[in-house]
Specification:
The complex is a heterodimer of chains A (147) and B (387). Chain A has one domain. Chain A contains 2 helices and 10 strands. In chain A, strand 5 and strand 6 form a beta hairpin. Chain A is globular. Chain B has 387 residues and is an alpha/beta fold. In chain B, the strands form 2 sheets. In chain B, strands 3-2-4-7-1-8-11-10-9 form a 9-stranded mixed β-sheet. A two-stranded antiparallel ribbon of chain B has the order 5-6. In chain B, helix 6 crosses helix 10. The chains are: A mainly beta (147), B alpha/beta (387).
């Protein structure tokens, strides 16, 4: 039994999102990149919204970023997330400016979260091992913990 | 050529509603019929005069209404699916239908048991891009409107400082207005600043009283090419002077939006104010879609009532209360009258412009702006005028 076992498992084979889930399972964050114009696209789309080419690659990005914005959930509502408060963070990736990835944020109290805080991702299992989530941790703390 | 403009103006000629309550014993269809019949009566029409309907997804179906009312003349029926922006956008669609000669009398309504029936988090969601929500957001514990929209409030706070006093003022002004409105769900339930401050936290900077109500009730209005009852009785008629909508960049996703606080209302307001002889400063009141307290501040900025970053100062000092420079949500809004997805905001504007708002009347109100905020940042703005 892990913390995220009861999280509802979406359709992991969904054509648009399956590469995202495969990436998390392998321990990294992948986002879309247009094979023609090189634009990074997130969340995933069917074609490139800039040049409209239908060929979008999935490319691995460094699991490092800075907190762009966040919310603290005090009133539980999401399946598999009964323990409040918890923090959901929108994190802008260091190596992909403009691309922001949603994950949980842990390792600090909710009122200590600040915009611009450097964070690093780990990928805990969820849904009884069927998938992995994104768990951001302040980089300072991750370093202290030797990870 | 028969597809041509047949009317010069569109009017809101009838408004009706049930009382807004936490629990109504009767089914939503009965609530809908009560509100619709009240609006038809208010317009001085018969049910069979209705020849157009603008419906809303997830509420009582328009075919159910047609069956119950025995409507035989409906020839134009659409659904406007823009969440809280739909009420004002429906007004625009209905106005175009009567201006274009497709219909003479268009019904718009909302009816739901939003509190005693399935609550928001349990009802099917009509938000766009459900796949995206279910794939990227729900697994990470991000799934309600308060959680989703609290990031806008948080980002604004990061830029300009936390607008706590202004958020409280929006909540308290709405509640004080609701004390003058017997139909309001929060009538006879005044709110103090310490009640506001002591309330439990919901999501991000939002405490309980920053969040709108969930309501049992119904609201209806009728848009027509002429106001027969006003013509007969001398009652002021209410003209739809303009209405427009706009959509946020990346309309299916907030998290990657840039600029982050950009919303469709900016584009809607740009259209309306650019083609109008009226300006925001000409408005005698404003009905602002108040799903959350900060969104009133956000929309006052986006609609051009004040500059970005000045919303918190703008709402202070009594300006948005009755008697102030720009009374906002004189019915109590979604925060204190009830959640009719913004149609109640249009209904209140009509009553104010007719001079029928009783103890909460804005003296000699001639022009009122109404906003809608829906989905992930769709926005709409209407200007109604009395004559």
């Amino acid at each position: 039994m892990t913390q995220f076992d009861e999280v509802a498992v979406p359709d992991l084979e969904n054509e648009l999102f399956a590469p995202y889930w495969r990436g998390l399972k392998a321990g990294h964050i992948e986002v879309q990149c247009c094979t023609r114009c090189g634009t990074f696209q997130w969340p995933p789309l069917t074609i490139c919204p800039v040049c409209h080419t239908a060929t979008l690659d999935w490319v691995e990005r460094q699991p490092m970023g800075k907190v762009f914005v966040w919310t603290t959930v005090h009133h539980p509502s999401a399946v598999g997330h009964p323990d409040v408060p918890y923090v959901v963070a929108v994190v802008e990736l260091d190596d992909t400016p403009g691309v922001r990835v949603v994950g949980l944020l842990t390792g600090l109290s909710w009122h200590q979260v600040e915009a611009g805080m450097p964070v690093v991702a780990t990928f805990p299992t969820a849904g009884q091992g069927q998938m992995n989530l994104i768990l951001w941790t302040p980089r300072e703390m991750a370093q202290e913990a030797g990870t | 050529m028969s597809f041509r403009a047949l009317s010069e103006s569109a009017y809101v000629v009838g408004v009706g509603n049930t009382p807004y309550r936490k629990r109504h014993a009767v089914p939503a269809t009965a609530l809908a019929l009560e509100a619709v019949l009240s609006a038809i009566n208010d317009a001085g029409l018969e049910p069979d005069d209705i020849d157009g309907i603008v419906a809303y997804p997830g509420h009582v179906g328009s075919d159910v209404l047609m069956a119950n009312l025995g409507l035989s003349n409906v020839k134009w029926r659409i659904t406007v699916d823009l969440g809280g922006a739909a009420a004002v956008s429906s007004l625009a669609s209905a106005a175009l239908a009567v201006l274009g000669g497709q219909c003479s009398n268009v019904l718009i309504y909302r009816a739901l048991k939003g509190n005693s029936g399935l609550r928001k988090a349990q009802r099917p969601s009509w938000l766009p891009a459900q796949e995206l929500r279910q794939q990227l957001e729900h697994p990470h514990g991000w799934n309600t409107p308060s959680q989703r929209f609290s990031v806008l409030c948080q980002h604004y706070s990061n830029l300009y400082g936390e607008p706590r006093d202004a958020m409280a003022e929006v909540a308290l002004a709405a509640r004080s207005h609701a004390q003058l409105n017997p139909d309001a769900q929060m009538h006879d339930r005044p709110l103090t600043r310490s009640d506001y401050d002591d309330a439990r936290m919901i999501a991000g900077l939002y405490r309980l009283f920053d969040c709108c109500l969930e309501t049992d009730g119904a609201c209806a209005l009728i848009v027509s090419n002429m106001d027969r009852k006003s013509d007969r009785s001398g009652r002021r008629s209410v003209e739809i002077l303009d209405a427009a909508e706009g959509h946020g960049a990346s309309p299916e996703d907030i998290s990657n939006r840039d600029p982050f606080l950009s919303v469709g209302l900016e584009a809607a307001a740009h259209q309306v104010w650019n083609r109008s002889t009226l300006a925001p400063s000409d408005m005698d009141a404003a009905m602002i879609y108040d799903c959350f307290t900060f969104e009133v501040i956000h929309q006052l900025e986006a609609a051009g009532f004040c500059a970005e970053g000045n919303g918190p100062d703008f709402v202070m000092g009594g300006r948005i209360r009755l008697g102030g420079q720009l009374p906002v949500n004189t019915h109590g809004g979604l925060l204190s009258e009830g959640h009719m997805v913004g149609l109640n905001h249009v209904a209140e504007a009509v009553r104010q412009l007719r001079g029928e708002a009783g103890p909460r009347q804005v003296p000699d109100a001639r022009h009122i702006a109404v906003t809608g905020w829906g989905q992930l940042g769709d926005g709409s703005l209407a200007v109604l005028g009395a004559k």
